[in-house]
Amino acid sequence: MALRDILVYLDDSPGGLVRMRLAADLARRHQARLAVLYVMHDSDAQQHSLRTAELGLLPAAEYADLEASIASQHDGVAAHLKDAFAEVRDSYALKAEWYCVKGANVPQIVIQHARCADLTIVGGYPQKSKNIDDDYALAETLLFTSGRPVIIVPVDYNGEHLGNRIAIGWDASRTAARALSDALSLIERAQMTSVMTINPAELELHGALPVTTMVNHLRLHCDNVEMRLMETGHMPIGDALQAQAKSDEADLLVAGACGHLRLWKKALGGVAEDILARLQLPVLVSA
Question: What's the pTM value of the predicted model, to 2 decimals?
Answer without folding.
Answer: 0.86
